[in-house]
Amino acid sequence: MPKLRISVVQYLNTAPLVWGFTHGLLAGKYDLSFTVPSQCAEQLRAGDVDIAIIPAIEYQRIDDLVILPDLAIASKRRVRSLLLISKVPIAEARSIALDRSSRSTQALTKILCAHHWQIAPQFQEMAPDLASMLAANDAALLIGDPALRVSLAIESAQSSNPTPSDQSASPARLGSAGVPAGDFSSMSVPSLSDRTAENRSGSFRGAPQQSAAPPEICTAATLGLPGAETLYVYDIVEQWRCMTGLSAVLAVWAARPSVATPDVVADFHASRAFGLLHLHELCDASSADLRLPAPALHSYLTDNIDFTLDPENISALTRFFVEASALNLTPPAKPVLLAPGPKASVLEPAAITSMRGSLNGAALDVLYAERKRNREL
């Protein structure tokens, strides 16, 4: 029987979801391919793959899909890897370049422009090169690892120089995506900053609509851009939270109903569990590839990303779909349909958290192996 084909986003925040498929006991069971979010959706639409992690908005644009339950890439408060970087305060922006590898974040940005910032800029899709995007537009939407690099550059500059307007800092080198590729090894990474604590805190659930969160402010030189221009950096999830009082769901695993069987769903849950159990190992490996400090990556994955589709995230997904449909970004919103859950229990994040104090990595590996063996009996 041929292997099921899985399309995977090649970003850091997807790695924990597929670590069991790439490094665990499920390695080799599925045929994996890696690309950008927009292409994952296109491959699923065309039938080139069986399961894909797609931008959440694409669930509304592709017929006959179900979402794998309790699996997502989401953020509760502030994500740090979806950024709108503007040369002017956002209320004054007249043109915005959109990262063409994005789909959900493009839609979120258009919703925020219409209903939160109440502006009607011109939008232009571009390759994710920050210098080129800002050269032709007032603002630029950047997503994924390039955006995370921008966030870390700003945090590093603030750590070494608490006055953002100080222009004495030397420019960082530009990486291939037009964002800094400099050395972050000396960067101070707090174990849990005030804002990331807010991100994980349930105190924000159901919060009333708030005014727009203030942007981070930095110089162009901080991001490796020429000149001393002031830049305004808006976290898209933080702005969405201010508008709706809800989290944001950015991507989901989706498949045709005939493919998303309980056993397949169980494997995806197990792969995520394996990734979360081996997060330090994952971050060490990614640190070398991204040339960013492993503690910063670990902080991002634990403090800013939520890998579940809990009730709040389902509510947020539904709100997102309604808002997108109202702006004619999708057809009329259809309900969220979840595939059947796994028949057997799976070691899940809540259980992992409670076990960490009493079980070491080897013991948890045994639990993971036992779960897989039970499924095969």
Beta strand %? 15-25%
**How many separate structural domains?**
2
Mean pLDDT: 83
The topology string of helices and strands comes to EHEHEEEEHEHEHHEEHEHHHHHH
CATH architecture assignment of the largest domain: 3-Layer(aba) Sandwich
Counted beta strands: 11
Overall body shape:
globular
**What's the CATH topology name of the largest domain?**
D-Maltodextrin-Binding Protein, domain 2
Query: Structural class per helix/strand content?
Result: alpha/beta
**Mind telling me the C-alpha Rg?**
20 Å
Q: State the end-to-end CA separation.
A: 19 Å
Helix content: 25-40%
What is the CATH class name of the largest domain? Alpha Beta
3D architecture notes:
This protein is α/β, with parallel strands linked by helices. It contains 13 helices and eleven strands. A six-stranded mixed beta sheet has the order 7-6-8-5-10-9, with helices on both faces. It has a five-stranded mixed beta sheet with strand order 2-1-3-11-4. 39% of the residues lie in helices and 17% in strands. The chain folds into two domains: 5-75 and 248-376, Periplasmic binding protein-like II (D-Maltodextrin-Binding Protein, domain 2, 3-Layer(aba) Sandwich); 82-244, Periplasmic binding protein-like II (D-Maltodextrin-Binding Protein, domain 2, 3-Layer(aba) Sandwich), CATH 3.40.190.
